[in-house]
Write a structure and sequence with these properties.
Length: about 450
Amino acid sequence: MPDRRKLIVVSNRGPVAYERVDGRRVARRGGGGLATALRGLQQLHDVTWIASAMTEEDRAVAAEGGGEAVLIAHDEAAYDLYYNVVANPMLWFIQHALWARVESPSLGHDFHEAWHDGYVRVNRSFAEAVVVELDNNPGATVFFHDYHLYLAPRFVRDARPDARLAHFVHIPWPTDWTVLPEPMRGAVYDGLLANDVVSFHTERWARNFELSCAGAGRTRITHHAISVDVAEFEELRSSDAVRAEQAQLPRPERLIVRVDRTDPSKNIVRGFHAFELLLETHPEHQGRVRLLALLDPSRQAIPAYAEYSAAIEAAAASVNARFPGAIDLRVEDNFPQSIAAFTRYDVLLVNPVYDGMNLVAKEGPLVNERDGVLVLSENAGAHEELGEWAITINPFDLWGQAEALHEGLSMDAAERAHRAEALRSHVREHDVGRWIDGLLTDLDRS
């Protein structure tokens, strides 16, 4: 067993969210992959988690000072600017190369206000909470997570120069940040470089970070690929909830599956049109192959996301008008249904424009029961690990994606089995525990 450590984990979302049900306070597992991935830390180490109060009941818990995490009840207007104007979509769009620069963005005075009155203010609130916890837990290590908190490490470093700080960035890191005005991107670089260690999922993203900020100075730059809790997913595969969902899945001769959030970075619309091109150019698949798209609604308060959701619906309707029933589109938050679909796919389509990792590419092969084929974007972080056993695609190449789907559907049984077993073995060996061990080892070496 490793030595227990005092850790302060800092992220926008926490491990639990509180609700009021029939007059009682109920704690539910926090949303998002980060909380799931970091659950192992809580089992092995003494963890204090600092996060935003996301619900009204969260805010009540924050006022009482109780709960499983230190919840910060931000000023609601400041949080809206921080989350819905700066973090999403600005930083997210920069880091996933989503801006169509001929038309957008155009940054006016309102964006500058959102930066100073939202992003800076909320990051400072996080930093103040961290300083309090550091004073209560001398010697604790602080783990910041993701793009919501790029400025907080500098504020903490200035207040507590000897603190041990680490930051994990879970999304891609591009070399070109010129969409963001220089003082703002300078603050992003400076905030991250205030850490002892900055980590990314892949060597590609780590190298880009070093290039974009022209050197790391005293900061150690590393990369460790996040993964899944293998035991949890293998248990889920045989659960009653998943078996019940399997009975509700379509049963064509061949099934293509995609599981995503309705996020523009996931490239869902191009994926639908690539599937349409498959049916058009390989008519032998018509009526025999169906695409099951299970999509979790994402950030619908942000116009760009709401518009993309509408584009997804329109694309599916257009394909189904030509090829009735070809796309089975389900937009809901239903995790057991996703696991059920993973067990039954013949081809898993993962075609993001860019992705820091994309855990679907690991979750699906781990629980699949049909020697399914993984079709994977070269711009997904997971490709650095899994590309050898996947069919690689360019996310902008519809013809290439259509041909990759055809290749996956036509692959002989022996090759399918070889690739599927290699994927399963890799994920089992490189699980979430290995990711956590890598992060802790980095700190020991810094």
